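Hi P.,

Sorry for the delay on this. The queue was packed all week, but I finally got your sequence through. Input first:
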Amino acid sequence: MNMPRLTHVRACLIDLDGTLVDTVDDFTAAINAMLGQFGAAPLPRQKILHFIGKGSEHLIQSVLAETFPPARAATEFTAALACYQQAYAGINGRHTTVYPHVREGLASLRAAGMPLACVTNKPHRFAVELLQHHELEGFFELIYGGDSWPRKKPDPMPLLKACEALGVTPASAVLIGDSENDVMAARAAGCRVLTVPYGYNHGNAIQAADSDGIVASLFAAAQAILPAADHTASLSTN
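Then the structure:
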């Protein structure tokens, strides 16, 4: 793929699930544990993958709609969400892996003095615990979850709040994500946006999303953002 180049970037906002960490097996385990409590059959990993990215509420609504008639899906939502969150809390990080070259990319950005924020639709406490589990939390100045503000991506609010907290204009920030959800949020906020090709994107091809470029990894994103002299991280450690 052609390497995009972005100039005058003053901060990076980075998605979590599907961008930094592959979490689909955690989601699958927690969802199917919840479904078992309701006497329902488990869903396949590939089906659950399509529901990831728009927050826990949307995930549970999608799973219930796939599993039960509409009336029961609506009735069971509150209890199912609580059951899912309890199950997820017990396995958060257990079945996850950091994507290749994520650490090198984050290290390269931080070594160049680039402020970093993790902006995810995952509940804040789960996001922090997952980043801690993989020893990634220390790369970020701030972490915003889907419950940190009244609205979540694709609404621009979390991105605008992150830019404000980091002291940069939206036009000087770039969001790195894996889905059209990220692209829509960035466009609405006035940020630039790069996408990775290996994430979830609700089962759709990321090439259809109107990003400023597709980067093979977080290290490639750093190369697209930083001057050549600032590419200080080595690929040899991953």
